[in-house]
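Re: [ENG-882] Designed sequences occasionally contain unexpected residues at chain ends

Forwarding the minimal case from QA. Structure tokens:
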């Protein structure tokens, strides 16, 4: 009888059979998902489920288990051990000590029982933990470290800069591989634009409870990267993965600086004090169900020298504008290196203003070679002369020259979820709403040149500073030390 069926009917039956098989397999996986999930979290140091308000549904359990398998495969969490570390002076921030892996057991800087951090006569260091996988995480870590090093700081602790990617290891490579996928996705979405960019944006704003479960599970594998640090050290983390790993490793004074102004589960950490920048974010986390005792309102994550220089530098900008000197615009590229198409078009759109000496551009490509080449391409295309800065010594000289006068050329190239942050800045008066089109960017620049908008924004910065809005990192260090001194 089946042989008498037309071809389309046979094909339809086959498709229905395949669909039914997939559905039955899904039901089977759902039935065993809770046990797979329980097995996955059996040895966890912290209960994420308690933190988010209860265990996952079967579908969430399956999702969390599958995503964890994609992240780590069949890898088992390492129990015990860890990597010996050494500390060296930073070449970027005087007084800051930077950690890295050290396999030499004879080196006195190794963080074993004889190291500075564990010396019974020396207070354990303030550890600023980060991951260099994004523009914000690293920047905020340096901002925090600057307050730990403040000359008037009321403590005798050294400040250590602990970047997970600076610890040469299998775990660091796992993070790099994950970051490559994220960066590639960000760049592709930005280049394609339209619905693809909207879809990518929706993914980065959908951090539900399962996203925290997966983040924490991955972080359990990262414990060896900091397990040799003194457990009495206050840890201030600028990446939730670092805070998760610190909690899992047994640190009891962990401060997690929530970098995003969009409340999502995966940016907060169970077992840590999660500090946020603004009241709306604080309200949102409370509504989500984050326990009040795990939250704090700190202020914005700003470096000490910028905060202390606000009165003079804001007045300096206003004076420059009143003297009709060129408007200075710095264009940095984020950690993922996305937005290449937009930024290149924007630089080209500013070419006329640059040549008229109304605008000076400072293009920061970071260590993104593809962005450096893109910048060079558009500068050559529009015939704009430029200088280049390629190392920290050059950056410091460039900064000095900027303060004392005008650069030799009007373009300088440094080559070595954000809508909510823009909204926050516009509410405070120290920034604009998110600018997503080149014509709108040009319009704002024209407003800076022809209206009092720049003066209004700088006055807002001065007023915000008077009420401590930019003291986030300062407060984070203070709170970490207060908690450490209570022990």
């Amino acid at each position: 009888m089946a042989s008498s069926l037309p071809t389309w009917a046979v094909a339809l039956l086959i498709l229905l059979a395949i669909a039914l098989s997939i559905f039955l397999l899904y039901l089977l996986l759902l039935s065993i998902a809770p046990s797979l999930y329980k097995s996955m979290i059996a040895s966890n140091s912290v209960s994420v489920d308690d933190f988010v308000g209860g265990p996952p549904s079967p579908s969430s359990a399956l999702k969390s288990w599958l995503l964890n398998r994609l992240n780590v495969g069949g890898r088992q969490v390492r129990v015990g051990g860890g990597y010996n570390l050494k500390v060296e002076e930073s070449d970027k921030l005087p007084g800051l000590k930077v950690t890295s892996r050290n396999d030499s057991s004879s080196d006195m800087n190794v963080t074993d029982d004889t190291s500075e951090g564990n010396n019974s006569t020396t207070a354990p260091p303030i550890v600023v933990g980060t991951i260099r996988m994004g523009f914000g995480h690293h920047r905020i870590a340096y901002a925090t470290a600057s307050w730990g090093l403040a000359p008037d700081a009321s403590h005798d602790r050294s400040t250590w800069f602990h970047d997970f990617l600076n610890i040469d290891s299998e775990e660091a490579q796992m993070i790099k591989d994950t970051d490559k996928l994220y960066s590639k996705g960000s760049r592709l979405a930005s280049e394609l634009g339209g619905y693809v960019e909207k879809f990518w944006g929706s993914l980065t704003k959908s951090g539900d409870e399962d996203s925290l479960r997966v983040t924490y599970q991955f972080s359990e594998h990262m414990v060896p990267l900091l397990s040799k640090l003194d457990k009495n050290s206050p840890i201030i983390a600028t990446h939730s993965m670092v805070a998760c790993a610190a909690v899992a490793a047994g640190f009891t004074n962990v401060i997690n600086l929530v970098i995003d102004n969009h409340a999502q589960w995966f940016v907060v950490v169970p077992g840590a004090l999660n500090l946020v920048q603004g009241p709306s974010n604080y309200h949102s986390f409370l509504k989500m169900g984050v326990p009040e005792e795990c939250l704090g309102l700190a202020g914005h994550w700003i470096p000490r020298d910028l905060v202390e220089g606000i009165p003079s530098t804001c007045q300096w900008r206003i004076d420059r504008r009143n003297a009709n000197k060129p408007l200075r615009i710095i264009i940095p590229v984020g950690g993922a290196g996305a937005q290449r198409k937009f930024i290149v078009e924007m630089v080209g759109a500013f070419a006329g203003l640059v040549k008229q000496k109304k605008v000076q551009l400072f293009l920061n490509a970071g260590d993104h070679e593809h962005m450096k080449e893109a910048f060079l391409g558009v500068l050559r295309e529009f015939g704009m002369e430029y200088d280049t800065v390629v190392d920290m010594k050059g950056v410091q000289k460039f900064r000095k020259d900027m303060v004392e006068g005008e650069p030799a050329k009007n373009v300088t190239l440094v080559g070595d979820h954000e809508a909510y942050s823009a909204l926050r800045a516009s509410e405070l008066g120290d920034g604009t709403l998110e600018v997503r089109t080149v014509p709108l960017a040009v319009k704002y620049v024209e407003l800076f040149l022809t209206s009092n908008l720049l003066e209004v924004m700088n006055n807002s910065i001065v007023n915000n500073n008077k009420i401590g809005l930019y003291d986030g990192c300062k407060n984070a260090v203070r709170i970490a030390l207060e908690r450490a001194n209570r022990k």
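QA comment: On inspection the terminal residues look reasonable. The first strand starts at residue 85 and ends at 89. Proposing we downgrade this to a documentation issue.
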